[in-house]
Amino acid sequence: MIFISSIIVVSAALCQISSAPANSPLLSGFADLHVHQMAEFAFRRAWFAKGANGGYSHKGKIEDALHQCNGGFNEQHAGTIFGPLIDKEIGPDAGLHLEKRWGVPDNDCDRGKPNWYQKLLGLCKVDKNLSGFPIYTTYTHQQVWEGYLKTAHDSGLTLMVMSAVNYKPLCKIMATSGIDNDPTLACDGMVSIKRQFDEAKIFCTERKWCQVVYSPEDARNVIAAGRMAVLLSIELSHIFEDSHDAIGAQVDYWYDQGMRVVQIAHEEDNIFAGVNPTNPIFKFFQAVEAITHINPSKWPEVGEDGLNKKGLTEKGVALVNKLMEKGIIIDVAHLSFRSTEDIFQIGVEKSYYPFIQSHGSFGHNDYSEERYLTDWMSLYLKKSGGMLGSMTRNVIKNYEYSFQLGINIAFGSDLNGFAKQLAPNATFQDKELREKGFAHMGLYPGLKKEIEYVSLDKGGSILHRSTENVVQLWERCLNNKRKMLSTEGFNPSNKFSASPRGVFNASQV
Ligand SMILES: *[C@@H]1O[C@H](CO)[C@@H](O)[C@H](O)[C@H]1NC(C)=O
Ligand SMILES: *[C@@H]1O[C@H](CO)[C@@H](O)[C@H](O)[C@H]1NC(C)=O
Ligand SMILES: *[C@@H]1O[C@H](CO)[C@@H](O)[C@H](O)[C@H]1NC(C)=O
Ligand SMILES: [Zn+2]
User: Fold this and answer.
1) DSSP 3-state percent helix, strand, coil across the chain (nearest 5)
2) Cα 255 to Cα 303: distance, rounded to the nearest angstrom
3) What CA–CA distance (Å, rounded) separates 169 from 114?
4) Nearest 5 degrees, angle CA 163-CA 167-CA 171?
5) What would the pLDDT profile of 467-494 be if each residue is shown by its tens digit?
6) Looking at ligand 1, which atom is closest to the CA of residue 128?
7) What is the Cα Rg of the chain in Å?
8) The whole model's pTM is what?
């Protein structure tokens, strides 16, 4: 399997010089730029799985993959061990969730007879409605089970960025806290990332409806054939830090493993870049420190302007240049404003190399936090053909504002990540979305319907072009003859309109 995929990688590398193909029909469907499909293998397999063998799975029968969790100490998954503490900082789904017995219940069979006997005779009633599970605040149970994913694909999801994730401090806590975990998935190095890449390849090899892709041409062919294209990405706090190999050689290695999208930092400052310091994960770690006395994480140093002082380091500049040489899609999610400003400056030198912000939101009335996409960033996206992957919780507002700016937008759900999704709302068209909010991947049909219904952009045409736009963005990354795109139609509200050093300014259309 790995052998086969490396052949594909080699052939992809040989035809790297691409441009938007003439006369090829526009791809249909929409894209999600940030999905942690394989999160069960992150954090030593302890966060929402249970150790090496058990746990919530992205695949398999619904009753196994989404089996019931009693949310008690004995469950020993995720944050149950931290009790109500992380419940407060992260959400109601983490920590002990005793009163919420989520998942497919086993004990529906318990009517005086052993389960195996009833299962054998087919007497167990499996509540496939999963009575309120998962919900839109689910952080510790599977949301990207294959049945849900297939539903999303059937409703038009034609491109997905599969983000392999790990966060060393959280992983280390899992390893030392006594929670059942998988010691083969070491916290140092990129063992867990490799596993997630391999599992994604296996998943699509076993199924005819998706395929991991290594070039825009690949993506066009796969999507035209009715399958979902999957791009492999990495979101890791200390990417490339644990190896003694030169950074360039590591990029080459991971490129050969299939990495086509990457975040150069995540959650905390690293050797390459400063990050957005407002992430709730820092609060969580402060809370963890109070009980465990483990101090796993460092707050970024914030300057007088309230922003992280750190931008790209020298190593960061070298890394970004190397990634651009290979046409890899760089994702600026989680970066500090200063890092983003530095990266955009390199992008300008490279004739407006495009970037994505894979899972974010416009600040709307509040641009003070560095996690928001500001107007100066949007202008760069406009000039370069970059894209925002919108978090679902603000998707309607984001969608309307992207329309006002004329920039391209896709979804960036961050499912299976620590993200609160779109909340239930009595005004929604779709019954399940109305009741559950965006609780899992299988609710894309309802979310799509809602956008088509409320959008100023008639029928949600930007949404329906999002896959085509991602593939064109990727083609621009690989096209050395790219030029700045027109800024026509860019109509910002000019909030928080200039970058920290004033290099980018939303007025410079
Ligand atoms: C599941 O939901 C459907 C529709 O809401 C309902 O008709 C059905 O009775 C439910 N099944 C169970 C087992 O609760
Ligand atoms: C539901 O949606 C309406 C219309 O978009 C909005 O005004 C309202 O605040 C939403 N309610 C909740 C609880 O989110
Ligand atoms: C942004 O541009 C506007 C118009 O040219 C100018 O008035 C403003 O001072 C600039 N802001 C910064 C921070 O450079
Ligand atoms: Zn649970």
Assistant:
1) 40, 15, 45
2) 36
3) 42
4) 120
5) 999 999 999 999 999 999 999 999 998 6
6) 13
7) 22
8) 0.88
Summarize pLDDT for 255-313 with one digit per residue, the tens. 999 999 999 999 889 999 999 987 666 666 666 666 666 665 677 888 998 899 999 99
Whole-angstrom distance, CA of residue 386 vs CA of residue 473:
6
Predicted local distance difference test score (pLDDT) of residue 1: 34
Please state, in angstroms and rounded to a whole number, the distance separating the CA atoms of residues 115 and 122: 10
Q: Is the CB of 425 under 6 A from ligand 2?
A: yes
pLDDT in tens, 44-69: 888 876 666 667 889 998 877 887 66
Residue 370 in tokens: 């560095």
**What are the Cα distances from residue 3, in Å, to 8, 9, 185, 201, 231?**
9, 10, 22, 11, 18
- Whose C-alpha lies nearest to ligand 2, atom 4? 427
**Neighbouring residues of the ion ligand 4, judged by CB less than 5 Å:** 69, 71
Q: How far is the CA of 431 from the centre of ligand 3 (A)?
A: 47
Separation CA 383–CA 428 (nearest Å)? 34
Best of 396, 397, 425 to mutate for ligand 2, by most ligand atoms within 8 A of CB?
425
Provide DSSP, 61-128. Answer: -HHHHTB-B--SGGG--GGGGGTHHHHHHH-TTSS--TT--BSB-SGGG-SSS-HHHHHHTT-----T
Residue 503 in contact with ligand 3 by CB distance below 6 A? no
